[in-house]
């Protein structure tokens, strides 16, 4: 068991995760802000990608999720906490609605963009020399938990995805009969 975490970047410093998006028919690269927490040692650590919830009305606020990252890193995981596009210091426009509603169709543009962002973070994790990309867990709080489970359920980039977990999961305040039956 690892007794403490060593942050892989300086305090307050973020790494950049590139994501390819199509804007008006042209391919463009956006930069996503992310935080990496690494256990002590040389590695081949399993990976947790921890997704934040909604912005809570402050979309430019970064959520480094230090408490959650510390929990996982102390147990031997490298943790990546990305800020989806338009959140924190990430580039691009967030398509995630901040309105609570039960119109599941209104969620799709934001959900699809967020799924693309998670794919970019998985690709980034696979390039880290100290990460074991055959053991990736997707987790998150609130909207980020919903996103993690939805991603795992879709089977995207599923090689190496060994789990999905949500903490305080939710999206839009909908009941189970109102959630989309197809992601």
Explain the overall architecture.
This protein is an alpha/beta fold. It has a single domain, classed as Rossmann fold. It is built from three helices and seven strands. Strands 1, 2, 3, 4, 5, 6 and 7 form a seven-stranded mixed sheet that branches. A hairpin with a 2-residue loop joins strand 2 (15-23) and strand 3 (26-39). The protein is globular.
Task: Record keyword descriptors for this entry.
7-stranded mixed beta sheet; disordered C terminus; 183 residues; alpha/beta; 3 helices; Rossmann fold
Quick synopsis:
By secondary structure, this protein is of the alpha/beta class. It has three helices and seven strands, in the order ββββαβαβαβ. Strands 1, 2, 3, 4, 5, 6 and 7 form a seven-stranded mixed β-sheet that branches.
Tell me the Rg in angstroms: 16 Å
Mean pLDDT: 77
For the report, how would you describe the main beta sheet? 7 strands, mixed
How far apart the termini lie comes to 37 Å
- Helix tally? 3
Order of helices and strands: EEEEHEHEHE
Which outline best applies? globular
Secondary structural class = alpha/beta
CATH-defined topology: Rossmann fold
What would you say the CATH architecture is?
Answer: 3-Layer(aba) Sandwich
- Approximate helicity band: 10-25%
Number of strands: 7
